[in-house]
Structure formats: structure tokens, C-alpha cells
Specification:
single chain; alpha+beta; seven-stranded mixed β-sheet; three-stranded antiparallel β-sheet; 8 helices; globular
Length: 324
């Protein structure tokens, strides 16, 4: 390697290390007894009856298929293109296009079913827009900007109040099982909700922008020493990739070895077989109809949805085997 090329390589590595390196030490900011886990998760006592077609927002908030929305602005951040639009009733929506639209709706439905706070999300296969690039649009994920959800900031996977709690470890397991690999802090939001009529607002911690799911993790092994978000970590919305990747490769004591090629192995080191079984038990409580509704809501063809469900159920069965 000549001197000039080496110079550019060193500059590239330095830029990665100062701007986008991830991973590291897990630092709880509270003990499990001090952490208010209800801000992250609430036991889904009604899990068997949750409507997984309409999800967290219910039918009342769902936008109408084929509706027309007014262009507000283009969203140029993130992997997927999108817009901010305004609906016929004045509600403003964040719209995501491309393959992540389906996976975000499906994954959000599942996390909400398990008891994790989620914003309403919906999938429209047909809709039109006035203003901007007007006319018929491609299928998209719609997420409303709710007036009683005030954004307070981001939260980090490595430093938060929930690190050593069961719901947090269960959240890690659920993301691994669904192959959601884009664990940026910027995808994790803190909202102040409620607060109407003089009632105090409540803080909730949400993992959103879940589109990098239902594919595989595939970070280059040779670059394991350089965990950066600027290098492709895997695929998204790829059924064949999802079917090809396993879940649990082995267990040694309290350590679970996952079939995971991502940039966050240090988070997985804290997950025990009991944590995997806890998440698997929650997922096993969903009915076949609920699983079908998850993928129907996200616009998947019936046969492809059935294949996703079969793979997810096989992973759940692996997790249940660790219950003993």
C-alpha cells in the first residue's frame, strides 16, 4: 500500500471512530428495583384479544385506503425515502416508502402485542398525494404525529434505566428473533404522553423505525474490530434471508450463543436462557389469527406471510426449549 492510499485509509478509520462507532460497555443508570419498567413495557394481560390488524392505534385512527393526502415536506433522513403529509382531517403523518414500510408495520405490531410501547402505524397499499410529487403513490407506512405524544429525545441501548430488567432483555431477544439489526439510539424515542385536562404527562420509551427487520444480519466478520453503522449490517424485508438465518446456536451456562452477525454482541452477552424463554412464552400466546393479522396488516401476500410465521414459530419453539 503506497503512502497516499494509507493516508486515506487512516483518515477513513479516524472518521468512523469519531462519528459512528457503536457498542461498548453496558451502563445501567438505575438498579432493577429503581427502574420504572412500565415506561418501557406493560404486561399484556389482554394479549390473546389484542387487535393485531389495526395495532396500537386501533381502527379509529387508521387512515382510509385510497385516501388523498396533502404534501407538507420531503423526508430525506434515513435509509427509506418518505414524506410528511396532511390527511383530510388535518392530521399530519410521517410516511415511509420502500421495503421498510412493510417490515416496520409488522415488527411494530409484534412488539406492541408483547407489551412494548409503540406509536400507531398503518400500511396503505394505495393512496394519492396533492402537491409535491403529486399523483398515485407507492405503498407506504403511515405514522401519525399525535398531539398528545410530545417528543423529548432519544435513549441509548447501552445506557438506560432498564438495562438489567427482564423487559429490556426480552426486548433484545425479540429484536434478535425478528432480525431487527438497526439499533441506533436515534431510532429510540422518549415521549411525554397524555397530560390532558391537567393530568400529569407520562414518559414512555419506544423503539421505532423498525424497518431493518425480517431479513438477516450480515456484518462482515473481518470488520468485527470496527463496529460502525456506516457499513451494511444486513438485509431487510427479505423472506429467503430470514428463513436462512437461525436463532440459537448453543447455550453455555447462563450465556446464549445466537446466530447473530451484527455490531452489538456486547448487548447479547447479558441475555440468559431464561430471558429467551420469557420472550418466547409471550410470543407463544398469540393465536394463528393474530399472526396472520400481523402480516395482513403489513400488506404481505398470504403465502409469504405464512412462511414468515412458520419461521418465527420455529424460533419461538427454540426459545421455549430453554424454559427448563
Amino acid at each position: 500500500m503506497n503512502a497516499l492510499r494509507l493516508h486515506f485509509v487512516l483518515i477513513f478509520i479516524a472518521s468512523l471512530s469519531t462519528g459512528c462507532m457503536v457498542g461498548g460497555t453496558v451502563r445501567p443508570t438505575a438498579t432493577p428495583s429503581q427502574a420504572d419498567t412500565s415506561a418501557l413495557w406493560q404486561a399484556p394481560d389482554d394479549i390473546a384479544t389484542r387487535d393485531l390488524f389495526y395495532g396500537a392505534g386501533g381502527q379509529a385512527r387508521a387512515p382510509r385506503e385510497g385516501a388523498t393526502f396533502a404534501f407538507v415536506r420531503e423526508d430525506t433522513g434515513g435509509y427509506s425515502p418518505g414524506y410528511d403529509v396532511r390527511g383530510p382531517d388535518g392530521m399530519e403523518w410521517s410516511v415511509k416508502l420502500g421495503p421498510e414500510a412493510q417490515t416496520e408495520v409488522a415488527t411494530s405490531r409484534i412488539l406492541w402485542a408483547l407489551g412494548y410501547h409503540q406509536p400507531p402505524t398503518y400500511y396503505l397499499s394505495t393512496w394519492t398525494m396533492t402537491g409535491g410529487p403529486a399523483g398515485a403513490q407507492q405503498p407506504a407506512r403511515f405514522r401519525p404525529r399525535l398531539p398528545d405524544w410530545m417528543l423529548e429525545g432519544d435513549w441509548d441501548w447501552y445506557e438506560n434505566d432498564f438495562v438489567n430488567t427482564q423487559p429490556f432483555k426480552g426486548l433484545i431477544v425479540a429484536n434478535v428473533l425478528l432480525n431487527n439489526w438497526d439499533w441506533k439510539a436515534s431510532n429510540n424515542k422518549i415521549y411525554a404522553t397524555g397530560g390532558a385536562d391537567g393530568a400529569p404527562a407520562r414518559r414512555i420509551f419506544v423503539v421505532q423505525d423498525l424497518g431493518a427487520s425480517l431479513g438477516k444480519t450480515a456484518y462482515p466478520r473481518l470488520l468485527g474490530w470496527l463496529p460502525t453503522q456506516y457499513i451494511k449490517q444486513g438485509s431487510r424485508n427479505n423472506l429467503e434471508d430470514f428463513e436462512a438465518q437461525g436463532f440459537i446456536e448453543g447455550v453455555e451456562g447462563d450465556q446464549v450463543e445466537f446466530d447473530y452477525r451484527g455490531i452489538h454482541p456486547s448487548l447479547l452477552e447479558h441475555v440468559t436462557p431464561q430471558d429467551v424463554a420469557w420472550t418466547a412464552r409471550l410470543m407463544s400466546r398469540l393465536s394463528d389469527d393474530q399472526w396472520r393479522d400481523v402480516f395482513r396488516a403489513a400488506g404481505y401476500a398470504q403465502d409469504r406471510g405464512a412462511r414468515y410465521i412458520a419461521k418465527i414459530k420455529s424460533k419461538i419453539a427454540e426459545g421455549l426449549k430453554l424454559a427448563g
